[in-house]
Amino acid sequence: MTATLERSAPGPRTGPPVLDVKGVSKVFGTGNDAVVALDGVDLSVASGEFVCLLGASGCGKSTLLNLVAGLDRPTSGTVETSAARPAVMFQEAALLPWLTAGKNVELPLRLSGVGRSARRERAHELLALVRLEGQADKRPHELSGGMRQRVALARALAAATGLGEGGTTRHEPGVLLMDEPFGALDAITRDVLQAELLRVWEATGTTVLFVTHDVRESVRLAERVVLLSSRPGRVVREWATASDSDPEELHGDITGELREVISAHAR
Amino acid sequence: MPADTTTDEQRPGTPDDAAEVGRGLDALDTPTEQRTPLWKRLLTGIVPPIVAVVLFVVVWQILWASAIWPEFKLPSPESVFGTIGTDIADGRALAIVWTSISRAVLGFLLAVVIATPIGLLVATVPLVRSAIGPILTGLQNLPSVAWVPAAVLWFGLNDQTIYFVVLMGAVPSIANGLVSGIDQVPPLLPRVGFAMGASRSQSARLIMLPAALPGFLGGLKQGWAFSWRSLMAAEIIATSPSLGFGLGAYLNEGQSLSDMPSVIAAILLILVVGIGVELLFFRPAELRVLRARGLATGP
Q: Known Pfam families for this protein (chain A) (predicted)?
């Protein structure tokens, strides 16, 4: 089976969802100043699925991601994740500047008490996966923006998948939450990293929930694009990006809908 | 399974091409670090201060030779360096400097032990911060020499008085340095730690403390400076045979004997110790920490 075929049939994936968001609302502040960031959002993501949350600024897509990551609590509704802990990647690489690339990747393993040699080996494996072999001893400031973001990806994978196939978490490919991870990169680097992310996703079978405001990025990456409205954030529509539909046409469709959602705020 | 991931895009080329492009980007975008050669660093770092000191001594010599001020007010460089020379030769200078340095170091270490938990508490517990944060800053601004009379009345003329004054000088700076170090940690770092499942103590140990290290080091450096000047103030004011003979007492003795070369020699020794500790310990430590984070600028 080729990757192309797999992407053309995103259809019903088997098994219970790894992420299940039910009727989630989030209100910031109280009284007249209260801002409804999310209003009754339902979203369920199957194991191994790649979903993009798309929306203009202020649509609460980052808020939703934070709720799924457990960094914040919903005002009402429930967030259920079957994965032990989803790993998060932010727009900034947020590497610890005093640690080498290798030690940064090791950190989540160190936090969960994995022994020195095992986590070292896993860090080398993951750095090789993101094509950074031989860079383990470099410090973040010695790497380019794109390389830093790949170290962050390797670290997120370490957090999501533990020791991988060799460890105890054998059949848990993990969940990756990404909050506009390529937003701060230049166009060429972004293009390369999108391809890298797809390669890594297919190689690992990780579930990805990816937040972006870039329609083209969402069409290229995701199997399913979920459009959120702004203030309050609600799910407007979903698209499956099967390969039999023309990406340009789909891009036009989604952009039209997004423009409509945004211009609704002008009235 | 072929790893062709870009079939849904009209992108020419194979994944191998993409990998090539990625490697090319890495090579192009990697920041290049230019290290200045050693001789150049020595030339720019050591020569200018030496020239400045030589110029200063020359001006001093000229002023002394022009005899504008009487000899007992402005001694010649020769007599001052002669005093230092004979003190060093008979071992007196070493004993005096050692008395003071050992006190300052002990007081400083004690201050670190006391100030670190205080700083941690102030930085992390909002109630503690609003309660004693302003007092800490106030104490940092209070010249610690103001504590000497009180300390003499409380403890008498002994080492306790000296250490009390040193602590009152150093503890607030070190604690405040730690607080500002922790305050300046980018909020994203503890968030990342939490997202990776760090417990509170893991977050403090593995993320917050290392992240706050540059600020803490700044506080330590200032704490040392405050220890040293507090000690000098205490030694000058509180003199007694039971207190031993440190640099402050040496300075005091010079004044009561109207021995100007001794007074200036004492000032120079105090200065040399201060600069020496900075150059031997704090500057290298700071450079190491900053360089590891890519924060050091200049040579």
A: ABC_tran (PF00005)
Pairing of strands A207-212, A50-54: parallel
Partner residue facing B5 (CB), from A92, A110, A195 = A195
The pTM for the full model equals 0.77
Pick the closest to residue A79 from A125, A42, A118, A47 (CA basis): A42
**pLDDT tens string A111-164:** 888 888 888 988 998 898 888 888 888 899 888 888 898 899 899 888 887 776
Q: Order across the sheet with A19-28: list the strands.
A: A35-45, A19-28, A76-81
Q: Rounded to 5, what percent of chain A is helix, strand, coil?
A: 40, 20, 35
- Inter-chain touch A192–B207, beta carbons under 8 Å: no
Q: Where are the beta strands (DSSP E) in chain A?
A: 19-28, 35-45, 50-54, 76-81, 87-89, 175-179, 207-212, 224-228, 235-240
**Centroid of chain to Cα B167:** 16
In chain A, residues 62-91 whose CB comes closer than 8 Å to chain B: 69-71, 85, 87-88, 90
Instruction: Going residue by residue through chain B, which has 299 residues, state the pLDDT in tens, using 9 for 90 and above.
Output: 444 444 444 444 455 676 778 788 888 877 776 777 788 877 888 888 899 999 999 999 999 999 888 888 889 999 889 988 988 888 888 899 999 999 999 999 999 999 999 998 998 899 999 999 899 999 988 988 899 999 999 998 888 999 999 999 999 999 999 999 999 998 889 888 888 888 888 888 889 889 999 989 999 999 999 999 999 988 888 877 777 888 988 998 888 898 888 899 999 999 999 889 988 999 889 888 888 888 765 44
Tell me the count of A-B CB pairs closer than 8 A: 125
Which of B 187-206 lie inside 8 A of A, CB atoms?
188-189, 191-199, 202, 206
Strand pairing category for A35-45 and A224-228: unpaired
- Cβ(B254)–Cβ(A59) below 8 Å: no
Own/partner contacts of A253-262, CB < 8 Å, gap of 24 or more, are A254/A54, A254/A215, A254/A218, A254/A219, A254/A225, A254/A227, A255/A215, A257/A227, A258/A54, A258/A55, A258/A56, A258/A215, A258/A227, A261/A55, A261/A56, A261/A227, A261/A229, A261/A230, A261/A236, A262/A56, A262/A230
Cβ contact, residue pair A3, B213, below 8 Å: no
CB spacing of A98 vs B292 below 8 angstroms: yes
